[in-house]
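Weekly sync notes, structure subgroup
Attendees: PM, AL, DS (notes)

Item 1: joint prediction request from the bench team. They want all two components modeled as one assembly rather than separately. Inputs as received:
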Amino acid sequence: MILSAQSINKSYTEAGDGSQAIQVLKDFSLEIQEGESLAIMGPSGCGKSTLVSILSGLDQPDRGQVKIAEQDLYQLSANALTDFRAQNIGVIFQQFHLLPHLKAIDNVRLPLDLQGDDRAEEKAREALRSVGLAERAEHFPHQMSRGECQRTAIARVLVMEPKIVFADEPTGSLDRRTADEVMEILFQRLKEKNIALVLVTHDEQVAQLCERRLSL
Amino acid sequence: MKRGASRTTWALVKLALADILHSRREILAGWAVLSLGLTALLVSFGFRESIQDYIDQNARRALTADVRVTRTTAFPPELLEAVENTLDWQESRREIEFLANIRPLAPEAENSLLVSVHAVEANFPALGQIELESSKDFSQLIEEGTVLVSPEVRDLLNLTPGDRLALGQIELSVGDSIRSDPALVGFGTGFAPRIYIPFDRALESGLIQFGSQSQFHHYYTLKNPALVGASVEGLTDLQRPEGATALSFSIRSADRALANIERGLGFFQSLLALLSLTVAAFAFMIGFYLVQIFSQSRAQHWAVYLIFGARRAQVQWLGWLQSALLLLFSWLSALVIVFLLFAWLREAGGALFPLDFQLYLGPQSLISSALVSLIAASLFYLPTALRLARLQAKSLLEQDSPELPELKPWSKIWPYLLSSLCFFILTTHLFHNLWLALAFAGILILNALVALSLVPRFFSWLSQRTISKPRWALSRLAFLSLSRARFVTTLCFMALLKAGFILGFIPHLYENAIVKELATPDPSQLPNYFVINIAENDTETLKDFLASHTAELRYLSPFILARLVSINNEPSDLDLFRRFPTRVSYRGELIDSEKVIRGPELPPVHDPKTHPIPLISVETQYARRSGMKIGDLLEFEVAGFPVQGLIANLRQVSWNSFQPNFFIQFQKGVLEDFPKTYIGVVYESPSSEVNLAYLIHQNFPNLSLINVSQTISRLAEVTRSLGPPLRTLSLSTVGSAFVLVLALIFHNLLQRRSERALFSQLGANSHKITHVYQWEYLSLGGLAGALGIFSGTLTSFWVGHRLLEAQFSWIPSAWGAGVTLILLVFVWLVVAASTTQKGN
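Output from the run, pasted for the record:
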């Protein structure tokens, strides 16, 4: 098992008086096997992003336990968690969040550089090639299409060879055709490397690609 | 692991650089203003270090000893013994210095010259060496009884070795001219060029007498020069023991040898510091603001770094590094600018500085400015660092474009307070004066309050007034924008207000207090010569002699040396009275150049029945400096006798009339019997064709003549030479303020792209949009400039009138108006160019 979440609870206090707490997640549990793909669906505000934040180690639950590769995320110190996330967890966003001042190749090698990897360049070029963007390596994000940007973002995740990838509405900013292309590449590469996927989406067609679906 | 860590650090540096290079347009404004601010500070630091080095290196050399004591009459043996017992000295030298005229005795010679005569022994000086043109030995030529002249004397009188000169009642042969003289460190020859003669010949010249301008110096080198401070203290105790007024003498130590130059340069340094700090204050405020804007727009980048494995401390370091790199580039640019500026000043401004003065950027200036840059980089980044500490990587999942979290009010304020405190420390350091620094800070705060309270209200009022006027629709939009009191508006207003202030202040002060005051004397009213050292029995002969050469001796005034012992029976501690005797006179009526401004006029002759104590008149500035007022009882010692005087009035004197005037004047009937000489002025007929000065010296060798027109032209030259640097300084400050404002406008327009897009959506064409912004900045510039010029002119009136006692009149300044107009047109064009630029 790659991910195990047990009895996750999370609530927010309303901005302002802070007296009213809104329960977003209550006793939520989930298990994901290596290489498995799971689609999480649900209406806006149901807690999808909160769940992804907690499962990916970006936000702490009020109660409960999240284990990835048998490591309890919230038992780690802040720096250890950062290192663990960098090596085991990948995140893909709807808005790509590529850095505008970096070329595609530099965006992809960013996580490797931050880890001090001395084979960053080689690995980044390979990752770009694997998403079909070898010839766009020297282009800046504003010189690429939205689909290319998202493929670059996927390469940036794959380059670290994580054990699990969280994708938050990865096709939300793309047209149908581009979305299909991007998803095809993503699923293919994850399958090749036996990487698990947690996909948050509103798109039924995209959700169909996953082995399992979960509605919140 | 270690290798990985250094790779991570290098990766972060590359990320920071890539971001800066990619954001060139955003960075450009920050780089420009910070370079300017650091340039201003570097100029001030460099100038200050150059002054200090110059003083440190030259002070002992300039005095040619560690300590010098001086009297206007020869030192009594018991006083000299007391002085020498006080000092732990190694070597001593003596010198008599006096002003006199020399006259070449060659048959064809027609000129005479006022010189500063230095009568010395062969072993002079104690420290350093006087070098002669012919490489002969100074000591040997003095022993041979020759006169050694400065190059100026040699050139003016066309002298060569072997020529003979008359000095008072003696004749001397020219031995050589001087090539270098350690005592000439500073501004060189000064009022009268110097000559050296053998000590004993001075005594034979007949020019050393009571009441003349002679000074008797004794120089000492100490066994331990580091103890000069303690030695001065010992001599000060000796200066005026109770009841022993005859022991008075003045002291000069090596550490104060260049005090006058230090004061002069110090004044220039203070002015420079004021202008530099003004520029730096605005540059740093704008830089601070621009770094905030830049940093806050980086929230998304930092969240990405956090999510892809960067630790928070690494991201903080990267954010700080970007701020530091911006300051580093600005500092390097400033270094290049100042290096070139100083090189140019060394070439072009040589006459402004003392001889041997080197303007350069020393290690202290480099370290200080680097330190300021480093602290500024940290302070500029501090508010962002506090917000970044709370940034969550998950915000990338929650927001399309994450922002840095807001802070609590106190957390928002304290970085600004800390930055203000650091700038205040810098201000105090540069001014060397807490009160000046407080005044500077006060003016800045006042400036900010005016900008924050007046500007929004004024423009809000204007927008209300134009609400029903369709033709003013575009202007109204500009007024509405200005009424919002944004940070940029406030800063622009403050910078322009300061620029206007300087435009109004410096030219007015210079024109009124310096140029106009010196230009006041009507040349036809000025005497041709000022005559000193006229012996009592020569006065009538001199009058007759001058009358026979169509000249006239006027304002003949007795000149008596007195020592002020007490004021209102309290011994006077003022250094002014301790150093030298007071020169007093008496006359029955006021002359043209003086008027009583407080108290009644003195009765012409003292009448002991009506006033048992004789009445005196005191010059008003002298009274203010020495704390005297009407009704004070002054006690003097004149030639060993006590003389009292009661201050009856205060007089204002027009010193630039070149008439004989005195700080303290008695009624007639009090001082007549004391030993005295006379001073007076000579008016020559315009049609006279004789060389009067030469003839006077031929017939009255003991008299000293000062050529008034030569003196005035030298003073005017000095005054004129002050004009260009003052104008350059004020123009540089005004120019800098405009560069700051333009950078701010440029950046602000870049930030307001979405506002322009909205105007465009609402149907405004680019021409109309440009007009709104032009109106906005010109209204702001017009108001700030007008207020600034008005307040600057008003302040110059106050300073000139109250502090310098100059008659003030408003001088329309064509260049000031021209500069303002050109800069406003420039703003108009820059706004047009920035708003119509492609991609904006």
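Discussion: The CA atoms of residues 52 and 166 of chain A lie 7 Å apart.
Action: AL to compare against the crosslinking data before next sync.
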